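Collaborator request, handled under Task 6.
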Amino acid sequence: MARIVAFGEIMARLSPPGHERFQQAMPGTIDVTFAGAEASIAASIAYMGGDAAFVTALPQHAIGDACIANMKSMGIDTQHILRTADGRLGIYFFEMGANQRASQVIYDRDGSSVAMTTADRYDWTGILREAEWFIVSGITPAISRNAAEVTRTAIAHANRLGVKVAVDMNYRSKLWQWSPPLKPRELATQTMRALMPMVDLFIGGREDAVEMLGIPDIGSDPDSLHSIAKQIARQFPRMSLVAMTRREGLSANHNNFGGMLYQAANDEACFAPLVDDRPGMYEIHNIVDRLGAGDAFTAGLIHALTASNLQSPASAVAFATAAGCLAHAIEGDFNYVSAAEIEALMHGDSSGRVKR
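Structure tokens returned to the collaborator:
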């Protein structure tokens, strides 16, 4: 079984019940879960039966203990999480949108433990021992200059140890504030382009490529995404694979979702789902929670690329896209969906009928 290691920040997610707005719910009842892109990826891989480890820094107190217990309950290996006397657990507040009212995210994560803990505190050789993939995102480098340096150091160690590196870009315009007077997009582009020469697999949407790598925005149709992926691979020769999600947001409750996997070696792009052998999209009419869908896509892709029966590009992107689709039906950021459920959708079982 392939060992997968993810590094990043995990936070407390605070959400009003249902579709209430912040001012309706507070003061009052609010739902608390744990969330973070890289942790969500590790959780999904572990829930599918994979060997996934998550690395971060957390404060030494009872909430940090609860966070680790939650990850362990998903099957995540937490042995390399650092506990610190300094710093805090980051928080984000999430207000669920509905119909034409958009969802809202408010971050409260300055001074978190992972933002402050330096690269030399982590035993990267031990952390990456026997790993096949190392996963980071474009979110953690956005939270502080130190976190960006830790990410760079970790990727360099992975390269030295022969561990493949995947970066899920995840551009967050509300972050990237740590180097004024640079604007968020400028800082993101400068930081992430410096990491890309060390990366084997790019994962993101069209907007991520445009905002973080400065790739010209030529559209979101399949031919345009193929062209964007080719440009990314040409600029960064180490990169053998480029995966991109496709999303059409018709309302807060209705999105269409698809995926693409590009192979640089043969300039071939595979799309999922296919409708009459042409690139199509899953129609998701009643979204339960769309946060974490991209993380589920990434987890599904890495799982497929390390599974003997799913390694072909067409199968890998089909599995990843089905995983991302199903994540829209799960509350919270973690994708509580099994590999068997994903394969069922991948092979056309989209009825949602009761399993008896």
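The cover message to the collaborator said: "The chain has one domain: 3-346. The mean pLDDT is 95. Please let us know whether this matches your experimental observations."
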